[in-house]
Amino acid sequence: MKLKHVIYLITMNKFMLVVAGYEGEKKKKFNSFSKNNQKYCDKYNIEYIEHSRNVKPIRGKFNWVKPFFVNDLLNNKLKENDILICLDADLAICNFDQEFDLDYGKSFGYAIDSANTHNTGFYIIRNNSWSRKMISLTIDEERYKYYINKKTYHERFKNHSVFWDDLVDQASWYSLAGIKRHSDISFWELKNYGWNSDCDEKTIYDVKDLEENVQLFDSRYNVTEISLETDGTFNINKVAYYKVINRHFAGNQKWNTVWLNPSFLKISLYYLNPFRVIKFLYIKYRPKFIGKFNKIIGK
């Protein structure tokens, strides 16, 4: 190990950020997620930062608050080379044996999730000139004004809509890295993981720059779709329940606290419970069955 690497490890601090603008019952549920985050941080000597008071939407969306807050932390609070772990408020840390970190030399890391998106609901960022510039570009007002009125094509839905109005900061990363909006083929199998697959005049990073600075975590780090719990519409990068590191309840899924740092026995009893499975399958397939039945009898 080189001396500069040793010095970095000694002087580097780690932080975890969660932004949550919830009220009422949702806030009560978030509190259990937050306690779980704190326990994880205590184990790895990470300073936990929770921004959950007087949170006001930016550009009409709460999702913009996180990158603006990250921008402030990188430029005004954190030291050079400090590590910041950013979680969406609806993400449950499941595996406390896995320490979140970046490889030496990488500036930004995130996972291609189980639903096959370059998902920014979990990411790790190193405070350096590259990452500060990247976050600045993510929230840049000129880029926002350009993309917020630009419709792009969705391959699965076969329609055009405003990506930035839907996925906000994640859509901003897609534009920076030139990632096409959707693929039914896993991004893990595409050339360069989909980087530079849909570039335009405002794409910033070429593949070489991304390879040098960005670390991709596998889909276990951001499980948004999972068999027998979600409807599976986009369950392209399948992850077994016992391998989940972070369970992300994206897309307005109902939060389930069973995923908060569960034991193998606890999560197995939940996941393989035949009554839960039958109920899930009934809810999922009942409308299809009724539709086919009505068609047969001529209704």
Topology (elements, then pairings):
Layout: H1 3-11, E1 14-19, H2 24-44, E2 47-51, H3 65-76, E3 83-88, E4 91-93, E5 108-112, E6 118-126, H4 129-138, H5 141-147, E7 151-154, E8 159-162, H6 163-167, H7 169-177, H8 207-213, E9 214-217, E10 246-248, H9 264-271, H10 274-296
Parallel strand pairs: 1-2, 1-3, 5-9
Antiparallel strand pairs: 3-6, 4-10, 5-6, 7-8
Helix pairs in contact: 3-4
Question: What does this entry look like structurally?
Answer:
The chain is α/β, with parallel strands linked by helices. The protein folds into 2 domains: 3-262, Spore Coat Polysaccharide Biosynthesis Protein SpsA, Chain A (Alpha-Beta Complex); 263-299, no CATH class. The chain is built from 10 helices and 10 strands. The chain has helices at 3-11, 24-44, 65-76, 129-138, 141-147, 163-167, 169-177, 207-213, 264-271, 274-296, and strands at 14-19, 47-51, 83-88, 91-93, 108-112, 118-126, 151-154, 159-162, 214-217, 246-248. It has a 6-stranded mixed beta sheet with strand order 2-1-3-6-5-9, sandwiched between helices. Strands 4-10 form a two-stranded antiparallel ribbon. Strands 7-8 form a two-stranded antiparallel sheet. A hairpin with a 4-residue loop joins strand 7 (151-154) and strand 8. Helix 3 (65-76) packs antiparallel against helix 4 (129-138). The radius of gyration is 20 Å and the shape is globular. Mean pLDDT is 92; it is low at 290-298.
